[in-house]
Write a structure and sequence with these properties.
By secondary structure, the protein is α/β, with parallel strands linked by helices. The chain has 8 helices and 10 strands.
């Protein structure tokens, strides 16, 4: 397993700011800037959010691959934020997913994170949800195999652990696995360690994320996104030593990609998430060498 960082840690600098929760940092970041930041942080790999990289012409992709190769960074191409396949309702998104498999190959990624949906698109009925997703997933594993890119479905606040396992086992392809987000299933009121225990055997990518309950403001029900802000790894409710152990025992050998989404206001330093990112990576390095 290798320490990495997802570009979503800098989502505000890429122009995505949660309304009513976050403020504009006043500066913007390019993908070249992010690669340089990853180098400075001393990580071994990166997860690159495609939503922050709209230019996908051959020259631009070749430049990105050259930058990543020169930096010695392993990479995951991350497709699907925020709504992915809209839980099976968006066939145009499925076509875009297939297009991005070629992009992943072009930038030298052997794994591509995908999202089946999000918290706003999840149907109430699992039978209906499953019936919509399975034909799409069965269709996309062929192009994935042809390009040599493993697809990794994230538990994106849209799928319970058992549901995601059912999808993976039903499709039954070595080209389809899981992007294990360590915190998202707590946001669905599911035990995150038990979710990780079920998903770790299928993990092909990760989001290492810690969260807590926000008691500093009234944010409504625990099923509301703002109820569960990110905090530096090791300072929240997620049992990271247990999850690292589960991944290790499952022989996971991919990237451990730090992800910070909506950062708890108390963890911001002068309006920046940099301190939380640095603290998280330090903790992750300690967990990686601990046995």
């Amino acid at each position: 397993m290798k320490i990495a960082i997802d570009s979503y840690c800098y989502h505000r600098h890429f122009g995505e700011i949660y309304p009513g929760l976050e403020t504009d940092p006043g500066t913007r970041m390019t993908m070249d800037d992010f690669v340089a930041r990853a180098q400075a942080l001393g990580v071994a790999g990166v997860s690159l959010e495609s939503c922050f990289f709209p230019q996908t012409d051959a020259g631009t992709l070749a430049h990105l691959r050259e930058r990543l190769d020169a930096a010695g960074l392993e990479r995951v191409w991350a497709w699907g934020h925020p709504h992915g396949l809209r839980s099976g309702d968006d066939l145009a998104a499925a076509d875009d997913l297939v297009r991005h498999i070629g992009i992943a190959q072009a930038v030298g990624a052997s794994v591509m994170r995908i999202c089946c949906g999000g918290r706003r698109t999840r149907p109430a009925n699992w039978t209906e949800h499953r019936a919509k997703l399975l034909p799409i997933l069965k269709r996309v594993v062929g192009p994935a195999e042809a390009h040599g890119v493993v697809l990794a479905i994230e538990n994106h606040i849209d799928l319970l652990a058992d549901e995601l396992v059912e999808l993976i086992e039903t499709v039954d392809s070595p080209w389809l696995g899981v992007c294990l987000d360590t915190a998202n299933n707590l946001r669905m009121i599911e035990d995150p360690v038990e979710a990780a225990r079920k998903l770790a055997p299928y993990a092909r990518a990760t989001h290492i994320k810690d969260i807590t309950a926000n008691t500093t403001r009234k944010v409504g029900h625990p099923r509301d996104f703002a109820f569960w802000p990110s905090v530096p790894v090791g300072q929240g409710l997620i049992d990271m030593p247990a999850i690292f152990a589960l991944l290790r025992n499952a022989n996971y050998d991919g990237l451990l990609a730090l992800e910070i989404d909506y950062l708890h206001p108390a963890c911001m330093v002068d309006g920046s998430a940099d301190a939380a990112i640095a603290q998280s990576l330090e903790t992750m390095r300690g967990l990686l060498i601990a046995r």
